[in-house]
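User: My collaborator sent over this chain with a note saying "see what the structure looks like." That's all I know about it. Can you take a look?
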Amino acid sequence: MDNVKQLLAVRRDKLQKIRDLGINPYPNHTKRSHTIKELKDNQEQFVADSQQVTIAGRLVAMRRQGKIGFGNVKDESGRIQIFVRKDTTGEENYELFKLFDLGDFVQISGICFVTRTGEYSVKANEVTILSKGLRPIPTVKEKVVDGQTRRFDEFADVELRYRKRYLDLLLNPQIKRTFEIRARIMREIRTFLDGRGYLEVDTPTLQPLYGGANARPFVTHHNTLDMPLYLRIATELYLKRLIVGGFEKVYEIGKNFRNEGMDKTHNPEFTAIELYEAFSDLDGMMEITEAMISTVAQQVLGTTELQFQGQAINLQRPWRRDTMLNLIQEHAGFDASSFDRDAIAAFCGEHNIEVDENAGPGKLITELFDTFVEPHLIQPTFVIDYPKEVSPLAKSKPGNPKLVERFELFIGGNEYGNAFTELNDPLDQRERLTAQSRLREMGDVEANVVDEDFLEALEYGMPPTGGLGIGLDRLIMLFTNNTTIKEVILFPTLKHE
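Assistant: Without extra context I'll predict from the sequence alone. Here is the result:
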């Protein structure tokens, strides 16, 4: 700790010395003429022309010997060596150079040349400080253990990486690549949907009533209106209002917030896409899901064949489709099609699956699916025909009122999407939301609430509609081969230190 304090004190002392030279260590403007990549891409031209250039970036290496100094400057496009001589910059400017530290942002003006050792460099005739770093950037330390290079510095601690993402990005360049892929995925999704005639829209994040999912909300208070508001848990009910209003294809990419536990695939604040298409249905949603994900993979990664945690996954269409009940029969050897609650509860008990006394047979069937089936769904699989009990916003399946037209998409043992043939019967919808409210009264804090305004909108008429939601953070995990959601969110939610 004393060593750290000493390093901080040395840097602050240098900061004061820079100011004593009459130089602002944090100037308002820079005069960069070229990126480092531009210099490297046109090396022969810059060397031959002796053209004056100005680069700007972070100083990542430096060594001085008497009146000569070398260093490396890095910007987002690359890094290049700088060569600084006292008799070229002048004594006062060289004194400033001597006050530079690793991590400082600097500006170097000069000409490009090749040193006697063959190193392409910028020979400085003027150096400028752009931002004096008051803390040293941690040093990456590695050692070879059992023939493998391993990190053993403080940034081997993953939680520290998440807390100080800015340093994580500096010290682990591959992390930056993850977020570049993330941005491309978002862009390609928009391109795909826009090309199919969808309209991107924005709906409220602060809502007077939450709905559209089984989740516990975050609650806040609006002082002027003196009323509680909720951070949205889903965009569904507002997007359906737009279908009622006459839009036929809409989508929204945005943040949802759920006041729930955190694990490898859950963060309280997450990014999702929801889309709704009038005159479509569950089959239409399966088609667009397959097409969108496989197209985005091809555009971003150049392939539909992925490696995810040692598993080869093929996103090539078509994907498997099977019912929840069939899959339970296949993997658990149990026939739950009778919806006999006592029999299902007994089977759960035999396999140490906790049974909520208020849960109906549909809820218990999903518990069986989660336990016996989900981990085995490695290749893309649409699981269809969900119990109505756990699907209050989906249309009933013709011929079987206990089931609904719903799918969830599973890849690599994880759930990625949820879709319905949307319920547009206002009376049936009211009945189902009322049943959900009774579950809330019995202690289910994640059950849906009755949204009177949404029900009123349905009474004006909503056409047959297909709806889809996809957790984009999880999709990015799949595309970047990451097992935890924190690796694909720049600033994940963490407990206070």
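A starting point for your reply to your collaborator: The radius of gyration is 29 Å.
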